[in-house]
Design brief:
Elements lengths: L2 E5 L9 H7 L6 H11 L4 E8 L2 E13 L3 E11 L8 H15 L4 E2 L8 H9 L14
Parallel strand pairs: 4-5
Antiparallel strand pairs: 1-2, 2-3, 3-4
Length: 141
């Protein structure tokens, strides 16, 4: 196993679609995901990935902004590791790499959303030192 972490070239964004599709609780079509990611890469966004050799096995979108209450902040989004690679400490290693990467860019806080029913992720984020600050609300327009 030759694990590497890196930032994906924006032109290669469609490579993550099979992984994001597995995470996708709302069952958004691949066509819609493609269209959305083609727009996402034009915004304050980068995509961190995990490779095992030449095989893409993990993804984490990174949204960069400045917030009045937390300063320069990054939000991990659509975090997913292939089920065959879970339970091996890759999530912890991936986030350690991400922490260093975003700190080197001058970001001082990280905040995220996770699905209410994703108990496995809650445990992971608590173990990483995240604390619940509030609720995330969504309204379709």
């Amino acid at each position: 196993m030759e694990i590497t972490f890196k930032i994906l070239n924006k032109s290669d964004i469609n490579l993550i679609l099979p992984l994001v599709e597995q995470l996708n609780d709302y069952k958004i079509s691949v066509a819609v995901l493609k269209a959305r990611f083609s727009e996402i890469v034009t915004q304050n966004y980068e995509c961190a990935v995990i490779y095992d050799g030449e095989i893409l096995i993990g993804v984490c979108g990174l949204w960069f902004c400045t917030r009045h209450y937390s300063g320069r902040s990054v939000e991990p989004d659509h975090v997913f590791i292939d089920t065959n690679y879970r339970g091996q400490g890759l999530g912890k290693r991936f986030f350690e790499w991400i922490y260093e990467y975003v700190s080197d860019k001058g970001f001082e806080t990280m905040e995220l959303n996770t699905y209410v029913s994703n108990y496995q992720s809650h445990k992971f984020y608590f173990n990483e030192g995240f604390k619940i600050l509030g609720y995330h609300f969504i309204k379709k327009l």
